[in-house]
Amino acid sequence: MATQTDEPIPGTYIFDGNAAMKGYALNKMCYSFNQAANRAEFQRDEDAYCAKYGLNEPQKAAVKARNVLQLIHAGGNIYYLAKFAGIFGLNVQDVGAQQTGMTVDQFRKFIKSQGD
In the chain, where are the structural domains located? Predict the structure, then answer.
């Protein structure tokens, strides 16, 4: 029988209620990218689009850096952030590499080695 612990998993950022509250505006903006018109509006003027959703400074900086890991730490939920990443042609391996601090090539080799 599995037991629940309050000890964090090393290197893991837990998306809980506090993170959800912190990232509400960011996640709402990313959800808006379900519509092509919103993606186009964002690409025309990122600063205005971020302001429209009320992103805070760390969130805006992470958006500018295209850094998904920073966005997660700023309250972003990976499911919504996938919409953001897709605008820039980032795939799951690109995001995984960012999250682990590896290059995409290193991350691909790592993932492939896990099946051996």
Answer: 18-113
Q: What is the CA radius of gyration of the chain?
A: 16
pTM of the predicted model as reported, rounded to 2 decimal places: 0.78
**56/59 Cα distance (integer angstroms):** 5
pLDDT tens digits for range 41-90: 999 999 999 999 999 999 999 999 998 889 999 999 988 888 888 898 88
C-alpha to C-alpha distance for 17 and 35, rounded to whole angstroms? 27
Residue 103 tokens, joined: 């290059």
Query: How many whole angstroms separate alpha carbon 83 and alpha carbon 35?
Result: 10
**CATH code 1.25.40.10 for 18-113:** no
Calpha distance 31→15 (Å, rounded): 17
